[in-house]
Design goal:
- The structure is a single chain.
- With 378 residues, this protein is an alpha/beta fold.
- The chain folds into two domains: 118 residues, Alpha-Beta Complex (Aspartate Aminotransferase, domain 1), CATH 3.90.1150.10; 233 residues, Type I PLP-dependent aspartate aminotransferase-like (Major domain) (Aspartate Aminotransferase, domain 2, 3-Layer(aba) Sandwich), CATH 3.40.640.10.
- It is 35% helix and 15% strand.
- Strand 5, helix 6 and strand 6 form a beta-alpha-beta unit.
- The longest helix is centred in the last third of the chain and has 19 residues.
Length: 378
């Protein structure tokens, strides 16, 4: 960039640019600052998460190093000693795809990828039809990190449950944006990171594991209880939490959950959805600009764009360095989705709005796209 300008952040689907935990004296540790025991500090966070997501089992709130870490632990751990089929979708992130490909190579697990309909939604009937008597597990994203389309999780969870198959739901994109009621969805597990719409620390996340959904540990070690055992304790959460917790992240995430407990995300999401819809329409009206994955289905505030004659990486570079707009070009760790959209292997430029996004931000992006499409910044 040739001059100092205020940056416009349109990459909320990747990570939040603002964190809700306030500045505090960082001397000492979270345990010293809080005056709580390790168990008290972590139980406090589990209880806040259980309350926010209406989840009745705080001690089955599992702490981990983000969504990728927890999805791997749940998928690989549940499939330990099992073969057969795992049913998922062509909308999944690599944090689901790669563990499934690993299981296919290592133990012959069959992964079945249900394609979305033209509007981006996965049909519950088609998903249910893919569950056969050899199916051990189902995995579903709550909302695509590319198209933003929100999936009918409740219907799919019910269909899987009726067939005796647990459903793991990847809520990385929806936690902090949608009002999520874990009891109503009644899935085997809901998994999310804290650094996106929850505006918390990176490298941290949680899994809400329903009773009856049990997973073998894939990492073992210190547990703080039953140190006499040669194996990891069977008690949750320690069964899946080997090693010392990240107490600083626990403390900071607690601040974030306090905010959302008093400011439910639903009303803000509705405003962002309207803003993103208007942005999509404006961008689609620009000559030479294509908005991919447009749909009438309910979706997160995400828009994907291309410009004739430009690679996505080139567009992202110009937006950032010339116009001061931060987006995310590429495949977004979701190659199968881009294959379905016809945008593989280069991907798209993803524009994602979040809690602090404004109409002025959208106007800056639209003006920048007009300039690029007109050949004014290449």
């Amino acid at each position: 960039m040739t001059e100092q300008v205020t940056m416009v952040y349109c990459n909320w689907a990747a990570t939040s640019p603002r964190k809700l935990y306030g500045s505090r004296d960082e001397s000492g540790t979270a345990l010293i600052r809080s005056g709580l025991s390790p168990t008290e500090l972590t139980i406090g966070l589990r209880e806040k998460a259980a309350k926010l997501f209406n989840f009745p089992y705080p001690m089955r709130v599992i702490l981990g190093a983000g969504c990728t870490d927890l999805l791997n632990k749940l998928i690989l751990g549940y499939m330990t000693g099992r073969t057969g089929r795992v049913v998922t979708t062509a909308l999944e992130h690599n944090s689901v795809l790669r563990p499934l490909h690993y299981l296919a190579r290592r133990q012959g697990v069959e992964a079945v990828f249900v394609e979305p309909e033209d509007d981006g939604r996965v049909d519950p009937g088609r998903f249910a039809a893919a569950i056969d008597r050899n199916t051990a597990l189902a995995v579903l994203t709550h909302a695509s990190n590319v198209t933003g389309v929100i999936q009918p999780v409740g219907e799919i969870a019910a269909a899987a449950r009726a067939r005796g198959v647990p459903l793991i739901v990847d809520c990385a994109q929806t936690a902090g944006l949608l009002d999520i009621d874990a009891s109503r969805l009644d899935a085997g597990a809901l998994v999310f990171s804290t650094h996106k719409a929850l505006m918390g620390p990176s490298g941290f996340g949680m899994a809400l594991m329903a009773k009856g959904f049990d997973v073998e540990p894939v990492i073992t070690g210190g547990s703080g209880i039953r140190s006499d055992l040669e194996r990891q304790p069977d008690d949750y959460p320690w069964k899946l939490e080997a090693g010392t917790p990240h107490y600083e992240a626990v403390e900071k995430t607690g601040d974030c959950l306090d905010y959302f407990l008093s400011h439910p995300p639903g009303p803000r999401f509705e405003k962002l959805a309207v803003m993103a819809g208007a942005l999509s329409d404006e961008l689609a009206s620009i000559k030479g600009v294509t908005v991919t994955g447009r749909s009438g289905a309910k979706k997160l505030p995400v828009v994907n764009i291309l410009i004739d004659g430009f690679d996505p990486d080139e567009i992202g570079y110009i937006l950032y360095h010339i116009h001061g707009v931060i987006t995310r070009p590429g495949l977004h760790c979701t190659p199968m989705t881009h294959r379905g959209l016809g945008t593989f292997p280069l991907g798209t430029v993803r524009v994602s709005l979040g809690h602090d996004s404004t109409p002025d931000d959208c106007a800056r992006l639209v003006d920048a796209m007009k300039s690029i499409a007109a050949g004014g910044a290449r």
